[in-house]
Amino acid sequence: MIIPIVVAFAAGLVGWVYQALKPPPPKICGSPNGPPLTSRRVKLNDGRHLAYREFGVPKEKAQHKIILSHGYYDSRHMYLATSQELMEELNACIILYDRAGYGESDPYPSRSAKTEAFDIEELADKLEIGSKFYVIGFSLGAYPIWSCLKYIPHRLVGACLVVPFVNYWWPSIPPALAKQSFRKLPRLFQFTYGIAHYTPLIYYWWTKQKWFPSMVSEGMFIDYDLKWLKKRIDTPNNNQEEITQQGEYESLHRDVLVAYANWEFDPMELTNQFKEGSVHLWQGSADRVIRNELNHYVVQKLPWIRYHEVPNVGHLFVYDPENFEAIMRSLLGR
């Protein structure tokens, strides 16, 4: 009698564990039970779609075409701290797109750091913006730009990494430096990133368990950041509800899993492929999300990247019009 009970209990436990670890299927935009389609989209060669929007001079007339990769918990509706007047002065068009699984872009279960570069390349080709273009990546959205520098440098006029995240497990980061910076993170962030890297199969469960919050932003933003964060939130029609409408796993979770996975390449081994254009890295001196000592090391290893450190600002200085203008002018050589 005891054996059937044990078997039933074990089967039930296995079933519970399986359900706890398995994320729900995404709600695909445009599907019968999914969110509606409201944006312009391009269809990629594998059948997926990327949603996008344009800002500034129409791409057909603009001299400078820039593809912008948004950060974590953001979308093509990312707040741009710039004006139409400045874009016309610079003769530039910014193309913002939803990265896979965010907003109205289709999820991509096979997504990796490498595939992000080819999504950007295909987007450029489908929109017919020319053989060469600029790229900008913000925060976690900078890892697609590292991938562009590896896989499609021949397509780039220039690139800009703004407060770019650093994978603590890149092979060329000295272990002592990685550990020193990692331990400055709140303990829950350390757990979350460690689980994403070492045990990705339980990441979904970790984000849903109730004993500990998976990530809490308290203490990560300085007063400067909070001022601009409020500005972003208070902006009308910021479309925040769209960001994760297809499911948190295919947007937020997969983003972290890809960012902190073992990549197909080591950014610290990249070489300078730019004869005319340039690559820029912008960092806030008081950033608590991405510590400046990590990016100091990055530019020491890659001295061909032009480093800009803005004093006394945190992680969100991209929302400051003065700083955003400086980023744009440096990238375009204006």
Describe the 3D structure:
With 334 residues, the chain is of the alpha/beta class. It has 11 helices and 8 strands. α2 (84-90) links the parallel β3 (64-69) and β4 (92-97). The N and C termini lie far apart (81 Å). Residues 4-18 have low confidence and may be disordered.
Topology, element by element:
Blueprint: H1 2-21, E1 40-43, E2 49-56, E3 64-69, H2 84-90, E4 92-97, H3 113-126, E5 133-138, H4 143-151, E6 156-162, H5 175-182, H6 187-198, H7 203-208, H8 223-234, H9 249-259, E7 279-284, H10 292-301, E8 305-310, H11 321-332
Parallel strand pairs: 3-4, 3-5, 5-6, 6-7, 7-8
Antiparallel strand pairs: 1-2, 2-4
Helix pairs in contact: 3-4
Concise summary:
The protein has helices spanning 2-21, 84-90, 113-126, 143-151, 175-182, 187-198, 203-208, 223-234, 249-259, 292-301, 321-332, and strands at residues 40-43, 49-56, 64-69, 92-97, 133-138, 156-162, 279-284, 305-310.
